[in-house]
């Protein structure tokens, strides 16, 4: 989720869905997906170039959008420690990904038109 300071050369679109006071977006869901893969918020944060506090904040704001947990963290030692996604968390990632793909398909001709008609410098 590293934010690039350079502007894109091609028009693009990013899906963000507002839920109550917060939003669900691709960056937060990528973080959640990596947490599910690694079983660790810390590992996911490192993989995305975030510090742990920022990753935890992003996951917390994502969680506040939902009445049921997206992930469960077990502290302690041994095999049972770590973070696992709940069924809701997994469904959210899948549904958002499908919706994002459809949005990009629907807007592709508009984005192509924008690219053809954009100012070059």
Summarize this structure briefly.
The protein contains 4 helices and 4 strands, in the order E-E-H-H-H-E-E-H. The chain is an alpha+beta fold.
Q: What can you tell me about this protein's structure?
A:
The protein has 121 residues and is α+β, with helices and mostly antiparallel strands. It has one domain: Orthogonal Bundle (Arc Repressor Mutant, subunit A), CATH 1.10.10.10. Helices cover 53% and strands 13% of the residues. The protein has four helices and four strands, in the order ββαααββα. The protein has helices at 26-38, 41-48, 52-63, 87-117, and strands at 16-19, 22-25, 71-74, 82-85. The strands form two sheets. Strands 1-2 form a two-stranded antiparallel sheet. Strand 3 (71-74) and strand 4 form a beta hairpin. Helix 1 crosses helix 4. It is elongated, with a radius of gyration of 17 Å. The model has no long low-confidence stretch (mean pLDDT 90).
């Amino acid at each position: 989720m590293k934010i690039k300071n350079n502007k894109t050369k091609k028009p693009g679109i990013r899906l963000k869905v507002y839920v109550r006071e917060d939003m669900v977006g691709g960056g937060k869901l990528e973080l959640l997906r990596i947490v599910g893969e690694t079983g660790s918020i810390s590992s996911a944060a490192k993989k995305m170039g975030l510090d742990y506090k920022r990753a935890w904040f992003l996951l917390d704001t994502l969680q506040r959008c939902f009445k049921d947990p997206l992930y469960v963290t077990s502290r302690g030692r041994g095999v049972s420690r770590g973070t696992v996604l709940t069924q809701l968390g997994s469904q959210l990632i899948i549904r958002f990904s499908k919706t994002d793909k459809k949005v990009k398909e629907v807007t592709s001709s508009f984005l192509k038109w924008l690219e053809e008609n954009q100012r070059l410098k």
